[in-house]
Predict the 3D structure of the following.
Amino acid sequence: MKKRLCFIISFFGITFFIKAQDTIFTTTQQTLLVRVMEISQTEVSYKNFYNPDGIIRKIGNHQVAKIVYENGKIESRFQLRAKTSDTLIKEHLFIVEDNHIALRNKDITHASALKMMMKKDPQTNSYELNDALITAESRKNGQIAFNILAPVSAVGGAYFALRHRYNTPEEIALKRTFFIGGLATCATSLVVAQIYKSLKNKQIRKAALMFNKEYYE
């Protein structure tokens, strides 16, 4: 009975001991049982779990696949945040100046910048960045919708105007109403589309600055 009790206590003790450690998974598939001390822009500082009073060791972020902490939390951004040189950082950052966006010293369209940011895994983004990207995408859809509505309303107005081409006063009035209404709707749609475009581009520039900050950090 005592042997069984000792076995049970030992089993749960070992289980707790194993779970009370941080685990670093490296890109070479090596597993390190550690106590993580600090994570900087370029490296992870840690102590060997079995020698907590020993020296502080370090491993480069580019060598880390992920870290699983003792509480179960997973840190898996290292490959996205590998910052071994300032040159590497700048190659992936957007330059936002006034109403322009550049990447690698070349101007790019807002649509291209949005497309690049949308490719990034949303689970690695902050809530604020994902919200900015969703808002930009929504305003892009609004711009597209009003750009489509503009020619449709112009053609529709012309079509219904032609259907009332007879020279009676009532038909002439209806013809004028449909024609002017179609042109007015077309013009209004084009203006609203430009407003959506402006708001979309502003949101993309905002998201680009957030993207830079999260990539750098």
User: Anything to note?
Assistant: The longest strand covers residues 31-39. The chain has a mean pLDDT of 81.
